[in-house]
Amino acid sequence: MDGRIVSTGTPRTLGARNRAAAQIVFGLPAGSELPAPLAARVTAAGGRAELATDRPTADLHALSGWALEQGIELADIEVRRPTLEDVYLDLTDRS
Questions:
Q1: What is the pTM for the complete model shown?
Q2: Please, what is the Cα angle at 47 between 44 and 48, to 5 degrees?
Q3: Share of the chain above pLDDT 70, in %
Q4: Residues 11, 84: contact at Cβ < 8 Å?
Q5: 35 belongs to a structural domain
Q6: Domain range for residue 74?
């Protein structure tokens, strides 16, 4: 960016990382049907599902409750937020 400062903050807040949507990513067994409120917001491909959320605690609760009721193990479940690298690439990619 021609030597200009484009953002400042702590590692936690830089690029609004602390307010960015979280991604809940998990393995979803074939033939499993998520409840409608979650299914409408999930993208799935190759046995992996991804849910973008600004309420990760509530959505994890709903997702894990559903999985327990169905007797389904959600393989490799994880919650992701943008990394510092993601923020850097986003900030330096701007025109």
A1: 0.72
A2: 55
A3: 88
A4: yes
A5: yes
A6: 21-93
